[in-house]
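Recall the central idea of this unit: under ordinary conditions, the amino acid sequence of a chain determines the structure it adopts. In this exercise we apply that idea directly, starting from the sequence alone.
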Amino acid sequence: MRKEIAAPPRTGSPGASGSRSCRSKPPICARNVFLVLFERAWSWNSIRGRPASHGERGKAAASSSSKRVWRSPTSTSKPSSRAGVDQRETQGLHEELLSSNEELQSINEEFETAKEELQSTNEELITSAEEISRGNQILNRANSDLSNLLANINIPIVLLGPDLNVRRITPSAERVLGLSSKKVGRSIDDIKLPLRVPNLKQLLLNVIKTGYAQELEVQDTRGRWYYLFLRPYRTDKSKTERSRVEGAVMALVDIHDRKLSEKTVLRLVTVVRDSNDAVIIRDLKDRIIAWNRGAEKMYGYTEAEALGMSIGRLIPGDRRMREREMVQVSAQGREASPIETRRCTKDGRTLDVLLTVTALRDEKGRPVELATTERDITERKRAEREFRRLHTRAISSQETERKRLARELHDGVGQILSGVKFRLESLPGRIEGIPEEAEREITRAGGIIDRAISETRRVSQNLMPAELEDLGLQPALTALCRDVQDRLCIRWQSSTWACRGISIPSWPWPFSASLRRLSTM
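Accordingly, the structure predicted from this sequence is:
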């Protein structure tokens, strides 16, 4: 609102000093002077930071124009009363000016505070925008990481919603379960997965309802084994509420090779456990760590008694060095042939066993344990000794019979043939007038008898060589070679067994005869 009133003329500086000078002069100074005051046309809301509306400003302007006062210079009012009124009005206006100045200063300060608040708010908005941008980058990176992880992982994974609709699948799931991107969004019931799990839907619903994971071994329609993981799909936990289950995660791990290995291991375990041979596993400090049923039957120790026991309790003192050498050979990676050794039982008996040592190694090829297979050959060794004894008796009896036959051939048949030959040769002298043809037949018959005598002597010599009986096996073999040379016209190299470095032991006569006979075959 604007007020116009008459004011005395001012001298000197304007403002407050002018006001003081007007008060000291007589009231006549108020002539021909007009003071125009403008009252603020803003409402109280503008002080709080909100400007007045257009209607409010219009009302304030109308009010100021209605209160405008015109003072005519030819006014006929009394000078004294008019000067007092002017002085009071000037003082009131001065106070209003001071009050308005203070209000303007407070409004300016409020404007400054609002400006600072706006600047602070702007900075906060910029910081929030940057944080949102960084959060978006982190989310994009996490999404890219998740996409690459699902794309490169070699595990079939299917993400399901609470209604069992497919949300996302991995490339392995496409290959194993026959899924594709076209089936994303469809229910698991409509897809018909190639798994032999008739209650798969119920299992998934239980996982979503209870929040507990389930694991089971399943087969597909081709007979391949998988380990099926059914886990709840949980949202992130917040400060005010717990995580919620909003679906399920289905993952398959191929365990077909492991199942085959388990079957193979189970077969081997069954074979080892039920084997009649003793299978013992010990560490490098000779402590027994595995003991099968065959070892219990063979040595008399139960599994509880044998575990932790030193293997030295089973080995006789005179056999430990040889067995230690065999263990060292196996530990070095070389193949050790089975050896025959002895073992002591719990009741003090000594058994003959066939020992096979195998070194068990770790992933770096270092020996960590030793497995021994021990077969009881006590009965077999006893049977072999009995067989050798009977065989020796049989050979001795056979050679004795051959010796008897050779003597009978030499002394009996040979002498008879010699007598027949002598009689044939004496026939031409005792009988006169024998035709020449008869003499030739007699001579031919004598030649035949000579060959028969020679053959008889040869058979007798083969049955019982004189060199073998008198000189031994080596002269008998030398004589045999010489005889073969004479009969077959083969050139014989003048070398002996000694110069060839061949040493023939002195065996008993039956064995020497058998060897000499084998050389003629």
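The mean pLDDT is 75.
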